[in-house]
Amino acid sequence: MKTKLSAENLEISFGTKEVLKKINVSFNEHEITALIGPSGCGKSTLLRSFNRMHDLSPDAKITGLLKLENLDLYDRAIPVTEIRKRIGMVFQKANPFPKSIYENIAYGLKINNLPHGKEVIEKALREAFLWDEVKNDLKMPATRLSGGQQQRLCIARAVALRPEVILMDEPCSALDPVSTLKIEELISHLKEKYTIVIVTHNMQQAQRIADKTVFMYLGEVKEEGETSQIFNAPKNEMTLNYINGNFG
Amino acid sequence: MKFKTRLSLDVAFKYIFKITGLLVLAALGGILAMLVYNSFSFFLDVKPLDFITGLEWNPTGKTPKYGMLPLILSTTLVTFGAMVIAIPLGIGTAAFIAEYASPKLKNILKPVIEMLAAVPSVVIGFLGIVLVGPGIADLASLPNGLNALNGAILLAVMALPTIITVAEDAIHAVPKTYKEASYGVGATKWQTLCRVVIPAAAPGIIAAVMLGVGRAIGETMTVLMATGNASLLPEGMFDSVKTMTATIAIEMGEVPYQTTHYFALYAIATVLFFMTLIANLVGEFFINRFRKYHAA
Q1: Where is the ABC transporter domain (chain A) (predicted)?
Q2: Class of the B68-291 domain?
């Protein structure tokens, strides 16, 4: 398996608060990797460092090497917009723009000067398993969709740009079980084309969809490996305690 | 506190708030009733259509002329000019403060702008006479600078703090998740501002502009001092104008009680009332249209 995304000696602090300590982790191409761990362990911080979302926080300090294949993600010569186009993101709470469904998909394409004809929009919506539900209401405000539909729209919006990696930050945490299953099915389907890193609090979810799982605790990676190994035969005692629900 | 006291306090406050609410309605209704009642006395003498479309305002002439079109046009011209200046400046400043300014600069800019709102209108009018007016006269080689442009510039300055403060609040209130979504698909800060943040803040920005328009239409002292008050049909920004508010302010003090001229001033006030009402309704209409996309 080819390594798609990697972090070497990554350290992140906000002001005086150290959030990530010497992280070394890599994610394989066309695999789903789940990041698990108790709240505040730095899962989301790690995830957001890959598409440079921390650029928006003036007090964030980042050291170490983050790479997309051989590309240094924090190389000053590369525009951050280019990186975010190649590494898409789906957020915890579905955040469609207050625009129509059509415009939500077209937005990213327009600002990147990509074609945004009806076929492109349709393809993205089909890929996100949303087309059949919205094909007659493309002009409807996206905010009228249900929570699950909104999140699939956000996935379609990310997919439309043909990224190489999709980062997902607890995409199902605000959804009901039925919508969650639908999105999990979608994520499993998407790995054929994309590399996916997903933060989740739901351990059943990690077991259902992830090929690899990374367990984090207090800003460090404690264990990583095949999902079945992490959940059935963890090597680290902390991992065992966490997956058994002894803390978290 | 005893349960009974708490309960009766609850009931008492419910009625107190109800009364204060109704008082506001009563005040508004009373003002409108007074304006309309006195206007009727005027319209017994002059036909409403002649009043609105008449080209000459000369109530003290040998044959008094009560045509208020020059006044309406004056008010419109000055307000329009003020908004042409104040809207881009105001929204630009608001966007700068909300999105670009460093916290330090923000802490200086915001109070300074709010202080601008505290400058009395007579002081602004004074500046118009000694500074802006002569400036315009020099630049455009006019005999004097007391004209619509002068009024528009001053009103823009007066409307700016309102527009900036309200628009900045609206821009600041745009959920962070919208911005993240936009950055997440590779948008730059500028693209995010223009295509996501400002449209999402549109209801608040329109409200800001409408408040600015209201301020400009209703402002009296500044325009009275700065625009020259010639009640002729204005042909451009360099003409002297006499706005509706200035007309009422100047003539009310000298008019004989309960004459046609006296009632005419009430009629002007009624028209003014409806102009601001329409401005507000238009604003409300746009606000609702944009809100459609926000409510889930």
Answers
A1: 5-243
A2: mainly alpha
Rounded Cα–Cα distance for residues A77 and B123 (Å): 53
In which residue ranges of chain B is pLDDT below 50?
A: 296
Give me the pLDDT at residue A64, please: 94
Single out the residue of B136, B148, B18, B23 nearest to residue B74, CA to CA.
B148
- Across the interface, do B293 and A99 touch by the CB < 8 Å criterion? yes
CB B273 within 8 A of CB B35: yes
Q: Indicate the residue of A98, A141, A157 with minimum beta-carbon distance to B185.
A: A157
Domain boundaries of chain B, sorted by first residue = 3-44, 68-291
| Partner B contacted by A89 (CB < 8 A) | yes
- Which residues numbered 214-253 in B keep a CB inside 8 Å of some CB on A? none
Enumerate domains of chain A plus CATH numbers. 3-243 (3.40.50.300)
Beta bridge partners of A91: none
- Amino acid at site B24: V
Alpha-carbon distance of B144 to A181, in angstroms, equals 76
Q: Which residues of chain A have pLDDT under 50?
A: none
CA distance B108 to chain A (A): 19
Cα radius of gyration rounded to whole Å, chain A: 18
**Which pLDDT value is given to residue B296?**
42
- B276-284 contact pairs (CB < 8 A, 24+): B276/B214, B276/B217, B276/B218, B279/B210, B279/B213, B279/B214, B279/B217, B280/B210, B280/B214, B282/B210, B283/B206, B283/B207, B283/B209, B283/B210, B283/B213
